[in-house]
Amino acid sequence: MAEANYEVSSSVAVTEEFQRLIVTARNRGVLSAVVPAARWIMEELARSPMLFGESRDFLPHMQLHLRIGFAGPISVQSAVHEPSRHVFIRRFKLRG
Asked: What is the pTM of this model?
């Protein structure tokens, strides 16, 4: 894994949402695809969040870049605060 350039965090609600996603993935039989995809997403968000996925919006008053990215069967919505080099995970979603 390459060196992390950004701190990545999520709220308790997002963490709980991700835990539910894991249960759903297990029930659908796609857990073996979700786990490596989630690891890769986390690595990309820590390494180069402005290159991962695509831009959705910019909130100038908060200096937040809102982004969405996809890997395998999951998507992630994030907000990148460049001045502090911090990524806030806003949502995980199991596609399909």
From this structure: 0.91
